Amino acid sequence: MQILNQDTPIKGIIPPMVTPIDTKGKVDIQGVEKLVEHLISGGVHGVFILGTTGEFSSLDIAQKKELIASTCKFVNGRIPVLVGVTDVCLQGCIELSKFAERSGAYAVVAAPPYYMGIDQEELYHFYEQLANSIPLPLFLYNMPSHTKVSIDVETAVALSKHKKIIGLKDSSANGSYFQSLQFNFNDQPDFVLMVGPEEMLAETVLMGGYGGVCGGANLFPKLYVKLYQAAVENNIDEIIRLQKLVMSISQKIYQHGGYKSSYLKGLKTSLSFLGIIQAQFVPPLFPFEPNEVEELKVRFSKIASMIIE
Amino acid sequence: MQILNQDTPIKGIIPPMVTPIDTKGKVDIQGVEKLVEHLISGGVHGVFILGTTGEFSSLDIAQKKELIASTCKFVNGRIPVLVGVTDVCLQGCIELSKFAERSGAYAVVAAPPYYMGIDQEELYHFYEQLANSIPLPLFLYNMPSHTKVSIDVETAVALSKHKKIIGLKDSSANGSYFQSLQFNFNDQPDFVLMVGPEEMLAETVLMGGYGGVCGGANLFPKLYVKLYQAAVENNIDEIIRLQKLVMSISQKIYQHGGYKSSYLKGLKTSLSFLGIIQAQFVPPLFPFEPNEVEELKVRFSKIASMIIE
Amino acid sequence: MQILNQDTPIKGIIPPMVTPIDTKGKVDIQGVEKLVEHLISGGVHGVFILGTTGEFSSLDIAQKKELIASTCKFVNGRIPVLVGVTDVCLQGCIELSKFAERSGAYAVVAAPPYYMGIDQEELYHFYEQLANSIPLPLFLYNMPSHTKVSIDVETAVALSKHKKIIGLKDSSANGSYFQSLQFNFNDQPDFVLMVGPEEMLAETVLMGGYGGVCGGANLFPKLYVKLYQAAVENNIDEIIRLQKLVMSISQKIYQHGGYKSSYLKGLKTSLSFLGIIQAQFVPPLFPFEPNEVEELKVRFSKIASMIIE
Amino acid sequence: MQILNQDTPIKGIIPPMVTPIDTKGKVDIQGVEKLVEHLISGGVHGVFILGTTGEFSSLDIAQKKELIASTCKFVNGRIPVLVGVTDVCLQGCIELSKFAERSGAYAVVAAPPYYMGIDQEELYHFYEQLANSIPLPLFLYNMPSHTKVSIDVETAVALSKHKKIIGLKDSSANGSYFQSLQFNFNDQPDFVLMVGPEEMLAETVLMGGYGGVCGGANLFPKLYVKLYQAAVENNIDEIIRLQKLVMSISQKIYQHGGYKSSYLKGLKTSLSFLGIIQAQFVPPLFPFEPNEVEELKVRFSKIASMIIE
């Protein structure tokens, strides 16, 4: 089913897909199909399922497999599917990677094991064992706010020598760290550096980055694709114009309600306004209060009206 | 199989059992049996499997079930078995709890979901849903260094109203926090407050605590049982004498090698010196270097010779 | 003026004195006198001025000198005066230490320089230079929540070899750390280990500690002196009784209003209810809102009525 | 002496000047003069003294005043002088600001008070009181790694309404935060947003930022000025070329030796290779070991040879 050539580095907008959930707490297959079509018709260059935005940590293995299988089926080879296999248990990462390969995924993505405090050497060995044991290429996933450990630049460079390790997604929001990555991987153009926070998409692409894993692209895929294109083309006026829209989403939707989980609540609830998914979550998250939903709807409408896709 | 009356609060030394692993990475059943006998003959008041010391996060579900079943079988109702069911996925916690119940466990223990940053309200609801869905009593497990979220005293008090929630194990090492717990639960003598760090066992029992989940009790169960008894009896001279031995272990064994994982490496490697388990680990941990093992052996021998059990 | 023998280790309750401020933002000398008499008549074993509770960081050098001079004058050698000289600038620490010596202080207390991130080796050298340059004995002051750096046990041990360095006050609230200190200083009975958080006073004295730097002793000195005595005498029943009062203060007064600075606001405002000082602060702190003061007054009255001194 | 019009927002490269120190620990006035000429001849758009790079926290008030007076004298109105007045004591900030004004400085720069943990409301009032009390315009200085508190975007926006507060320097390295600032200050073009980490200079200027407070500009002012110009002109090829040089400095010089203070040690020691200052520091920092100096010299020579200014 896979039509992509893994020798060409992936670039562009790879939304970290939210996981559609129904009112019974199950994966909403219809929602997956709608969301996949929404994203592909929006021109995204790939999808990344089972990331932080995909609530990977809260789903059980059956839900994860259902999501992988259904996403790969609906995508049907039109764009690459990246599958998050992050797990505190190495064996869990490996098993999910094998399932992803059988389902037709393009690559897997793994953040460090996130319970124990570990050293860089332990981190290196964990990734090496993982890369040795899986049938698909692997992206490293730097997410220190959630995993407590950062993938040091030196560790990333050492790991990049492994032929299975093809890129790194950085969600640290640390601009100096990302520039250090770009500097150190300058002579490895096949190693893909993607940025997590969408607020930093344009600037990192301007500086040579490969694209972004932008949560907001679940909502407005065309907006982020356009911003990426403007950055590739070094079209500063267009970047400035689009960046304001991206920042409006960041400011008005992702901080709504003042929860630690406002980003995810705002994103999924806004997608429900578009009729694509239901505003349902997996524990420990739960929906906004009704009045919060109403307030968000007003905010969302204003932003949506500014974004004529 | 369960012979304990759950209406009597558990007290004393409940070692967080290390998980014996063989050279192939599997649960070493013979090691489990030896360790269980070592602990019970040492007079411990219960065992806690699949805690942080038990490398719970690194084991897959099959390994966890094997450990639960074999531990319960070997213990055979002589002491209560507490089972760690901590999982980022609520459904995972519930399933493991049901398995623990079928295996004859006394209670389950759960730390907060540890990937996403969550608020106290989300934490409360997570625990409430868990308590509503499981057949065994539940201990809360405060471990902020690993889970990033602390169980606020107010949250613990609110949760204690749930009849299934019977206690809290605090591994924060924060003495003020533990005293706040004791103060707030003063009028709920059935709610069990256990301390994690063994360095704080004696003082917290002196002040009214119920006991400790002492990692070092894997090695020298009698030492910690004696220290607990001395604290119950307010025998300060004996406490001071035994505390020095406990601190020697803490200082010489748990910090050996200067790794973030030195505690666990030192503990399991020392247990291998006693011939009880092998010095094997699950990724992301790996054994000491041979020279580190030799140095530890010297340190261990000195301490062991001081502890005439 | 100094009547104490510095060869006898200081022990007991050493309140971290709040700094009385008048409505013009100046040191309230009359308040200093009243507070000093309140403390001495309450039986405290010393006073510690210009600590965190004394708002040292917010006072200018003239205010600090005025407080040192007036406190030493009012105390008049009846109890030892410890003077906080913590400063990010070594020269500032030295100058204040010299002034403290001329004013008749017993010793100085210094937390690590708290702006730059520094290593233990830099920390060691800083303290060594300080100890070499001052005319009074020096207490180390561990306060990692405020200084970002912790004084490692090894560093404390190395520094204790300096004849000017006579003790350590630990405000980390980390019970394992404090026990590690006690274990490592076991054979240096002249090295004074005092605990900061008053919630931990009783237990650390039971385990061999020298006493506490209890903020609440500003309010109710006799209560803390009694608790200290009960701990010295290993009178558990009395400890349990008094600990509840101490915890009531901690819970009802120090967390009032939910500010990061609630401890200090609650403490000074309560002292104003006793007519000892005014509820005035130095920036960046400012007084409670009037309704918050009223609510606190109710809480305070309840607690005060339980504490018949 | 001031020749600049404060109504025109400052832009470009404003090096955070290191403080030249002699072997006796005093401000090295000759070094100040040499450094000022080096910077001005390098085309910088201003200098910022007494920042973190200037070791402000470690200097006493006399040293600070000497540095302010001498810098202003040597600069002699050719470029704006920004003076760091960060102090935990509000009165200290105010006094230094008045001295800066009398010396001919252009503006002052203040990070939050950095000892106590404070809330945003307290932070707001602190800055408001400061701005009300000083004769010069004020830049906010966000430096959460050192001050523990971040200046929330909302707080910065609220403070920007004060006519004395004219800009913000962000040293958080958080790219999302900086973009949030730019978005929120989009309609206030007179409010100057400068970035601290030099690794992020080019990208933030491309996105509309005003320039950078680049430590490396002490060494190679022309390099950073050129990079700034390239960013202003949207000359991506030139940016990519110069960014590599900037990153070489960041990687090879600022991390030398693996100290927490490696940045400052590497920077000042490299400046000594240029014969501009001596490699002297104020406690708690101290010089590299001789072998570390030799290794750095080799690294530095390689980089310097690549940078033909």
Report a brief summary of the structure.
The structure is a homotetramer. Chain A has about 300 residues and is an alpha/beta fold.
For CATH, the homologous superfamily of chain A is named as: Aldolase class I
- Count of DSSP H/I helices of chain A: 12
Output the strand order for the largest sheet of chain A. Answer: 2-3-4-5-6-7
Helix share bin of chain A: 40-55%
**Which fold does the CATH topology of chain A refer to?**
TIM Barrel
Q: Report the sheet-strand fraction of chain A.
A: 5-15%
- The number of distinct structural domains of chain A comes to 1
Report how far apart the termini of chain A are: 30 Å
Binding site for pyruvate (chains A, B, C, D): 53, 213
Family (chains A, B, C, D): Belongs to the DapA family.
GO molecular function, one term (chains A, B, C, D): N-acetylneuraminate lyase activity
Keywords (chains A, B, C, D): Lyase, Schiff base
Structural write-up:
Four copies of one chain form a homotetramer. Chain A has 309 residues and is α/β, with parallel strands linked by helices. Chain A has a single domain (12-239), classed as TIM Barrel, CATH 3.20.20.70. In chain A, 46% of the residues lie in helices and 10% in strands. Chain A is built from twelve helices and eight strands. Chain A has helices at 29-41, 61-75, 90-103, 120-133, 144-147, 153-159, 175-184, 201-206, 221-232, 236-252, 262-273, 290-306, and strands at 12-13, 47-49, 81-84, 107-110, 138-142, 165-170, 192-195, 211-212. In chain A, the strands form two sheets. Chain A has a six-stranded parallel sheet, with helices on one face. Chain A has a two-stranded parallel ribbon with strand order 1-8. In chain A, helix 3 packs parallel to helix 4 (120-133) and helix 4 (120-133) packs parallel to helix 6 (153-159). The longest helix of chain A has 17 residues, at 236-252. The model of chain A has no long low-confidence stretch (mean pLDDT 96). Chains A and B meet through helix 3 and helix 4 of A and helix 3 and helix 4 of B.
